[in-house]
Amino acid sequence: MGLTNTQSNSAKIVTIVEGKFSIRLADDSDNTKAVERTLKKGKNAGKVVKELHYTGIEGKIQSCYVDESDFGANFITVMEDDEGSKFKLQMPLDSQFFSQYAKRMPNIDRTQPLFLGLGFDREKGRHFLFARQNGEKVLMKFTRDNPNGIPEPTVKTVQGKEKWDYSEQANFLYEVAMDFSNFEVGHNQEDKDDIPF
What is the reported pTM? Predict the structure, then answer.
């Protein structure tokens, strides 16, 4: 089952906020399950918004793409639940959640429903994303013990201080995500052939 609580057929936008999958509601919403949150960044800082929060989502992947906006680049996964409702899961490309998702993409069967969950690692003090299909964990293809081609982070000196540089890894995972996004090859190629330049 997906995230929907209403009968609307339009795709709901799902983001990750403070370790929860989140759907923003209208300001005048009277949904009793709504959680209020005060925005901390941007031109709307200080505004109180209403959201529905979830620890897991499940659906069949319909399509994936990168969306560029003034706020940065997001990887969008359009999913449809078993009731026919659609939602768009949005993850910033520079987030740990996108990295954890992309590392699993080669092991995801797009013909089967996918469950994505969010947990909290008490030792590391941070949230993490996990995945399951058919009751089994979807393991990462790219790990420290089995890199399978993912570049190692490097150390760079920035303003006299040494810092870890993950840019090569980020580019590698971006390419993995682009390969994962192209499962509708026939449609995408036909659309590209129609472009007159």
Answer: 0.83
